[in-house]
What we know:
The structure holds two protein chains of two kinds. Chain A is an alpha/beta fold. Chain A has helices at 18-23, 28-34, 38-48, 60-65, 89-96, 98-112, 126-141, 172-179, 208-220, 222-227, 259-266, 300-305, 324-338, 344-361, 367-380, 388-402, 404-427, 434-438; strands at residues 75-80, 116-121, 157-162, 203-207, 229-230, 233-234, 236-243, 249-254, 276-280, 314-319. Chain A has 18 helices and ten strands. In chain A, the strands form three sheets. A four-stranded parallel β-sheet of chain A has the order 3-2-1-4, sandwiched between helices. Chain A has a four-stranded mixed β-sheet with strand order 8-7-10-9, with helices on one face. A two-stranded antiparallel ribbon of chain A has the order 5-6. In chain A, a hairpin with a 2-residue loop joins β5 and β6. The longest helix of chain A is centred in the C-terminal third of the chain and has 24 residues, at 404-427. Chain B is an alpha/beta fold. Chain B is 28% helix and 19% strand. The mean pLDDT of chain B is 94. At the A-B interface, α13, α14 and α15 of A face α2 of B.
Amino acid sequence: MTNHLLFQDIDEPGLSTIEVYKRRGGYLMAEQALAMARDSIISSLKDSGLRGRGGAGFPTGLKASFIPQGKMDKFLVCNADESEPGTFKDRELMQKNPHSLIEGMIIAAYAVGANKAFIFIRGEYVQQAEILEKAIEEAKAAGYLGPDVMGRGVELDMWVHRGAGAYICGEETGLLDALEGRRGNPRLKPPFPANQGLYQGPTLINNVETLTAITYILKVGAEAYAAMGVEKSSGTKLISVSGNVKRPGNYEIEMGMTGRDIIYGLAGGIEDDREVLLWFPGGSSSPVLTKDDLDLPYDYDSLAGAKTMLGSGAIIVAHDGNSVVDIAVKTASFYKHESCGKCTPCREGTSWTTKMLKRIQSGEATPMDLDVISSVCEQIMGNCLCVLGDAMAMPVASMVTKFRPHFEAHIEQARAANEARLLAELDAPGNVLQGIAAD
Amino acid sequence: MPRPEIDQITFTVDGREVEAPAGTMLADAAKLGDVDIPVFCYEPKLGAPVGACRMCLVEIEGIPKLQTACSTPVRDGMVVDTQNPRVKAAQESVVEFLLLNHPLDCPVCDKGGECPLQDISFGWGRGESRFVEPKRHFQKPVELSPLIAIDRERCILCYRCVRFSQEVSEDYQLVLHERGADTFVGTFDGHPYVAPFSGNIMELCPVGALTSQAYRFRARPWDIEQSGSVCTLCPGQCNVSYTVRDDRVVRVLNRQNDDVDDGWLCDRGRFAYQSTYVDERVQGPMVRENGRLVPSSWDRALSTAVDIIDAADGRVGALAGGGSSNEDGWLLRRLMTEVVGSRDFDSRPAGVLSAGLQAALDAPEAQATVADLEWAHAVLVLDTEPVDDMPVLDLRLRKGVRRNGVRLAVATSRPSALDPNAELSVRFAPGAGEAFVCALDAAVGGVGDVAGLAAAAGADREAVEALGRMLREAGEDVVVVWGERLTHAADPEVGANAARALLKASGRLGLLDGRRGAGLLQVPTGMNARGLRELGVLPNVGPGYSEPAQVGRSSREIAVAAAAGEVRALHLLHVDPVASYPDRALWEAGLAAATGVVAHASFLTEGVLEHADVVFPSEAGAEKEGTVTHPDGRLQRLRPAVGKPEGTLPTWQVLSHLITALGGRATALTSMMITSEIAEAVPFYAGITHDEIGGFGIRWQEREASDAFPAGDSGPFSLVAPVAAASPNGALRLGSFRSVWSSPEVAHAPALKFLAPKQRAELNPDDAADRGIRHGQRVTVTADGTSVSATAHLRTASPRGSVFLETGLGDQSASALQSTEATVPSMVTVESA
């Protein structure tokens, strides 16, 4: 079931300007929020059941309540480093409706008492960063940001910081290090950012969609928001559907809709009307599902029950014209390239897995290598400093487990093809090895 | 920040109940229960753990995921398993991962045999690898610096070295390049990693990726022995372990003593051992023959020395270099007082302080320790540059600021390496230390003419007042780290006034009340200056700061008297005053006029080469036996790691021989017997033995005998108006410094030679522009007709109106231009050469 909340007016021309946004009721929630007690905003967030939309799905209200009370420099950071392959929902939000994010950030910053806010946006989002910068200027000019927000004696300054192109900077502590001007490497947790984040100060860090949703939760009310979706996965979710579907793109759904309804309904079915080979339900780091799993309800807990995850809400569909080996190589290579190298299992494990998969792809492997891959993925999972290692191990392990016959068939085919090619080369006239091979 | 109180807690590891201090990281706490948890990236010396290598994963009851033991503080009742199948699987995987790209070239690797990666692979690894792909390849080895070779294939990317550079020595040179499996260690700009403490990264490296250029392929671990001693190159007296192969030192490692060095060494201490084995070293006795020093027999050298001293008929002056051990200093003192009958001996390069003031400054109640620097509320670094004068202190100061929020203030003439860490940096004119301390005292007390005194010191009044406020308000634990040269003025009254002002300001801050964690810590100019002082190797102070019946000549007075023919023979114990004391010209004249000069030296430095009539070989650090006293009162033991060159005698035996040959009492048959003599003579050393000193030394202040410390001159003091800094008036004030790299050991150690300094004139760019001088240009610095040539080195941080030159560089030294005779600091002109 679709239900437009964040995407309500998304295609309204000029929504990215403050005039149009205000005409559509913009900044009313921020004004309302600043008149509320800080605690009551946080309890609304708790009541709404909103869970982090960046990938981990941690309850947003609870996270905000971890920020220590009292007067000190506190920070709000918006994670706009949308780097998970297949995810492009935040891009559309920031591009078309930047003020809803800013408004959500004003509310969140007020709720936790943060006076400095940063939007860490991935470097490739040049246009979106410029739009945000312009929107921040407009909001400042209109008095929604600055030393005295809306005359309520609240200070809030906001900056856009562009990343330099590293997936790891989407990991919250890696993001904080990068924001501080250091190499973007994840930090050891604890301490968590809520206690010691940016510049060692208490920091609330949330995804673009989560922060934007805050505005709409205040608009419809926590109860109405909680009533949307299903138990423990309330509200709406922006999903990015891509791959071999007829209508790829961003959709806003109420959670609990089935995968089939999304892929065959919203996204119009599979290209060339082929069969689904596999689909990633939550970005390329989620363990893959098959066509047998299409009727799973799309919410946090149902997907967790199927040993995968909702992640960032990016559904990538591959039809049966693809080779699962190619998909595995592509996935592993991405994470190998993006591993920061700080911790051992991720640095070495992603590289090793990629090397093995490439060997499988080129026909220089045996089925025993599949066991090694599974075991290596096992060794990575849960043993790393952050979740990047798991992000490779989970999908690769799931592919090897669920599609083992595909892998084995490919190994044999590729081996046979190699053998045939070598024999043909040997038979070619003038090959000096001919005499030797005859023995 | 005062030291935190730590409770003991009980936790369980592998079924054993273990007691440990609360908050200890599990990896350390487990050791208390004899459980070894393997680690690579974890090194407490580097600060907070980073949990990067994942080697130390353990299971903690109640936590679903495995946790890194290096970063998990123990809590009461914690139950830890380090051996169950799940943990074992994780450990085996990490070892397997680390070895994927490791070349396993152990048979040709220097680290082989003393390699944590080998040990851990053996102890916690699976013993086999499933990796069949090609390994990572780099060009190898390449020079990370002239001292360090880097083999990037062996690197397991624990990044300890990078953390050292970024967070301990703060030279910010080493970084990780690239990312993921392509990561490698290098300097940010690709230039060699040259820094005062760079060698430490080789010891931190848990594999053979960083190896010593000097030690590469010299020995295998089964060829060598380790021998603990103390480095004798500076007052830091870091504890070292000499690696010995075939009776030769081939390497120097740190021997962690948290009360002294925190487990670090500077590169001078690490590589200067090489100077032991160079041809230039004095290998045996020499005498002057037809104007040239030639090797001689011991008999001849000893009898020549006896003749020289005998012929001088009591008119002998003696200098003990700061590098002399307590035993050497003591025997020189006995030779002079008991046999020669002269009190003209000194161990200070310049200046003289009364026994009372000396005792007040060194009183146990006023003494801060090195470890106090880590936990003080505030530290003032006064007229000293730690990285040059006592390098390891620099790291300790940085640690306090970085980890415990110690508030640091720096008050010097020359910009300090610690300025970026300091909350407040105050500059005063070179040579105006006395005026500055008087101003500081006024500012701390909030009384007196701060403005006038600050002006006399050439310092900014507001900065002095801010410093006074900071020290007053920081908290009760304030430590003042002060340079001995503050009291080096030729006029004893000036030095005494500076000392009184320092005591007065310290008294106002409560530093003299015996409070632990607060006090004074001197950075002396000589390695064992404190020990020599306490033994009474001073013209006006007896053993244990007693007042002697008769007062002799100080260093400078000896030089004057020698030049005038009043002192006829000179005895130089491990010191060449021409090369290293102020007033170069005066010493040249004194040595030239002396009828006989007896020297103990390792190298024929200029004064010895030209003027000594007999030269006895001094022992190298690793050959020396005896004791030394650290600036905070810690007696430490020097233990010979290797034998001396064949047939040579130790200095104490030479001195002992001279004493008996000149009719004195033979008492010292072993070095240890001299230590006992000292323990009898210095009341507050009473009963100290080598055994008690042990491997890590003992502070005499912590022993009962410290009650015997005499009452010092405790005031109340009234200060006299200090000597005002000269106004530049077109000329420049001359300031001097001695770089850590300025010593004969550096100049003669093949590995370190490239660091030996060349004279440079540090100038403010505006002063340079006024004179049409550009950076890097050759300039001539002139005072009273004497010139020194140097390379102009423009520093924006350098104060206007001053120029700084290095000392210890022969006739191109600052000391060639400095005369302590003048009551005001030397003024010089600087012009393009």
